[in-house]
Amino acid sequence: MPESVECHSGYTYGERPVAFQWEGARLEVAVVMTQWRSPEGRQFCVRTGDGRIFELVYREHAGEWSIAPL
Hints:
The structure is a single chain. It contains no helices and 6 strands. It is mainly β. It has one domain. A 6-stranded antiparallel sheet has the order 1-2-3-4-5-6, with no helix packed on it.
């Protein structure tokens, strides 16, 4: 099942994540620590308001996000 990520979108979709669903809770992104592009798509390392760190990956070819705690 695809993950749920809210993002800021300017001229393209998914420019910057702002919040996401994790274990039934909505977590707001406090800081995008780093971002990069890979053959898979856009990837972000983010810190939430409660200090947890996650990797968010937008797989452009599938149009889906994945979320992993770090």
